[in-house]
Structure formats: structure tokens, C-alpha cells
Amino acid sequence: MTSVLYCQLPQSTAPGLSADLVAAGLEVIAKVEDCNKLVQSVVLCAPDVVICDVPQFSNVWFQALKRLEQAMPCPLIVFTHDTDVGRMEKAVACGALVYVVDGYGAHRLRSLVHLAQARFRHSEQQRESYEAIATRLEERKSVDRAKGILMHAQRLSDDDAFSTLRSAAMRSKQRLGQLSQHIIQSANLAEAVNRSGQLRMLSQRVVKLHLLQAAGVQVAQHTALLQESLARVDANLAFLRKNVSQSTYGDLLAQVSQTWGELKAALAHSHVPAMEQQAEALLSGAERLTTSLERSGAGAALKVLNLAGRQRMLAQRFCKYALLCQTVEPAQAEPVLACMRAAQSEFEEALTYLNGIPLSTPDIHHTLAAAGVAWLEMVAASQALARLGSVQGATSMALLAERSEILLGLFEQLATHYAHSMQMLLD
User: Nearest CA to 372 among 343, 410, 419, 321?
Assistant: First the structure.
């Protein structure tokens, strides 16, 4: 039997509705006398059809019907005395499939129920058809975006990118649109990890460049690089605010932003101790953010991207401490030297790891080899500077600064290689 729930107030259009429904062979499973309880009752009883006896419509009724349409759409019949066309249209917009004005008749109940059910099935078919079309359009957009990512990352033609996508989808037994969405998400996450990782490096680089300015080493060049670094931090923070989940990472990002403001103030006042303190705070905050972003992805390739990005920071950090050693008294140099040695140890350990992992290409091998040479040259320059001091070691200081920038460029390339690798995109 078709089950019916009806909502009927004391002042009704059809006093005998309950008995008429039973006589028509319909199962009355609930009666509601307050339209505010309509949604709750429908959800609890799950009737096949809902009938509302509404002599005159009010906003309360419209709100109840709208909530029902949103919470649990179902075949809905309305009996009413309300002839207002505007309210009629509003009731239909709220889900009324049959709207009977001054036309209640017991002999018509079964036909009206069948009509409401037929219209409901039709509307559901239309909705499903619309959703299927919308899904196909969204999938087509995702495929186009994923093709663009592969074309840019792997230097593929449009046809080759589509062929790569299709083959990968078949291997992984996924729909093309599903795999495309995964590639888009992987590329976005890789970019977020890369941008956040840059903040770690920039926390050290801005102090290094300030120290080079203060030492009179290629002042114009390092002033320009410092301004570029400041702009780069602001750009990366803006990107992360726009592209990462604020509910998940907003607190970490806010902390980084606040610390960055304090570091900029210290740079403006040329106060080295405050500068160093805020740079370390920014490094810690950016490290937490980057690690959290990395852990949100399950792929090993993302960890490698993070590690390669961290090498940029360690190269800048090593150079910074080598320069700081020239600004402190000999009795205060040991803590600075300890930090420099720690940065050197971390860098060399990570470089050995990166050279040994299978996630590699000829471009990556070449870049890692060049990075190894530049690192040895930078360490040698730091040792020469330590022997000669800042006055006699101006050439060593310039070489140290130059090699730190070369290493930065090389590991920027490596981060891009890893971010664009097929394993990163498909993992």
C-alpha cells in the first residue's frame, strides 16, 4: 500500500481526509497538526506521499515546505482555498507537485496521489540527468586542466598528455575525470608545499642579504636581492592564504604572517639580534606549516619535494651563520659555529639521500651533481673567511654569497623537477 503522511490544521478544507484516504486504499502512517513539525515527522516516517491541507498559505507554511524540499524531497499534494497566483507559484517552487484549489474530492484521491508520484519520478529523472550532465562537464574541465598540467610539467603535446592520462586511468582502474581531479589536487598540494618551503629559505636569506649589505659586499646587488626576497615572502603568503584550507592551516599561516611582520620591522631597524630571533621564529613556523602540508599527502614523492626544498633553506642558513661569525666577539662565536656545523651536517646528509633515491631523471642527476660541487666550494669559502676575517676575506665573503645563491637556484630547479615528476602527479 502507498503510505501517506498528512498535515491538517483544525480549520481544514477536507474534514474527512483521514477516512477518505483509508477508504481509497492508502495507508495513513502519521498525522501532523503543526506545520513546524512537518519535516521532523516526514524524516522519521519516510512516507511515500505527503498531503498538506492548507486553507490559506502563510510564510510559516512556505518555510516548512521549503525545509521539507531541502531535507527530504517527496511527492507533495496541497489542498487549499488560496487562489492567489503569487502564493501558488511560491508553493510550487517549494516542492508542491499537485496544487488543488477548492477541488477536494474523495473519489480523486488515488488519481492525485498517482499524479504526484509520477511528477516526482519525472522531476527526479530530470535532476539525475542534469547532475549527470553537470558531472560530465566538470570532468571535462578536470581533464583539460590535468592535460595542461602534464603538458607543462612533462613537455607533452595535447594528444600525448591525453594518451598518458587515459593509460594511467586504465592502469589504476579509475575514471578519467577521477584521475584528472587527483592530478590537479596533487599539483596544487605540491605547489603549496613548495611555496611554504620557500618561506623557510627566505627567513634565512633575508638575514644573510642584510649582513652582506652591512659588510659592504656588492651592496647594490644584495639590496636588490633583499627587496626581491621581501616581495617573494608577501607573494607566497598571499598564495597560501588563497589556496590552502583556512580551517585546517589558518592558525599556522596566521602565526607565520605575524612573525613575518615582526621580522620586517627588525630588518627596517637593522637590529641584528632581533632580526635573528624573528628569523628563527619564522623558520619554525614555516617548518610546521610545510610539514603539515606534506603530511596531508600520502605519496613518498611529496616528502622528497619537501626535503629538496629544505636544502634551499640549509644553504642560506649555513651562509648566514658563516657571516654572523664575523660580527660576534670570539667568546660568543661557539653557539653560532655550532648552528653552522648543524646546518652543514643536515645539508650533507640530505644531499647523500637525494643522490641515492630512485625518484630521479637525467636532469635531476645533473642538478644534484652541480649542487654537490657548489656546496664544496661554499664550505671552502666559509673556511677561508674564518681564517682571514671579514677585512682580508672580502673575496671569500663574496664567493660564499655567490655560491649560496647558486645553490638556491639549483635546488629551486630540483624542487620544480620533483613537483613536475609523473610519480608526484600520479602518486
Answer: 410
Are 87 and 184 part of one and the same domain? no
Name the β-bridge partners of 54: 80
Are residues 97 and 187 both part of a single domain? no
Judge whether 214 and 207 are in contact, CB under 8 Å.
no
**Same-domain status, 230 and 118:** no
- The answer as to whether 101 is a domain residue is yes
132 in any annotated domain = no
Q: Is the pLDDT of residue 217 over 60?
A: yes
| CA nearest neighbour of 243 among 192, 197, 287 | 192
- The neighbouring-strand residues paired with 50 are 5, 76
Distance CA 204, CA 426 (A): 33
Domain that holds residue 275: 176-426
- 91-131 residue pLDDT tens: 999 999 999 999 888 999 999 999 999 999 999 999 999 98
pLDDT for 200: 96
Task: Clarify whether residues 220 and 85 are in a common domain.
Answer: no
**Greatest CA separation found in the chain?**
109
